[in-house]
Amino acid sequence: MIPSFGASGTQVTIKGRDFSKDCNVDFGPVPCQKPPTFNPDGTITAEVPDGTGIVNVYVTNPLGTSPAVPLGQFAYGGPEPVVVTGITPDRGKANDSVTISGAGFAKGASVYFGKNASPSVQVDSDKIVAKAPRRARLRARPWTSP
Fold first, then answer.
1. What is the rounded distance in angstroms from the CA atom of residue 39 to the CA atom of residue 37?
2. Which of 38, 40, 76, 139 is deepest in the core (most CB within 10 A)?
3. Which residues form the IPT/TIG domain (predicted)?
4. SS3 label, residue 95
5. Mean pLDDT, residues 112-116 taken together
6. Ranges assigned E (strand) in 4-137
7. Which domains, from first to last, does the chain contain?
């Protein structure tokens, strides 16, 4: 979904599949006032209704409603929500590079391994590459996106 932040009235383009001409879009519990526009590339465009906070965006068609997914969130007023979709590798040693995949990462981000800050962090909007600090031990751990 692009953009993933803004104000009421913002035009948002939603990627997906199986959109039908009679689908509806909801931002959290609030439905869009106008039906979505169907684009030639298979996406749909919806106008953001009034709302506040960070909400899940849902598309409903005769087959059902889309599930809530991390990349399907909208932040009223911004900034773009940070979403983590993967961390690789899940094991390693000091000085190993770790890639954090996702969306909404901003320049100047910090990465910590426990209480130890990474000595080197490279940030793009969709990934961060960080070096594990000397005192870090990398091991598989469950993680969730905030």
1. 6
2. 76
3. 3-68, 83-134
4. coil
5. 85
6. 5-6, 11-14, 24-27, 30-31, 37-38, 44-47, 54-61, 64-65, 73-76, 83-88, 97-103, 112-113, 116-117, 121-124, 127-131
7. 5-76 (2.60.40), 83-131 (no CATH)
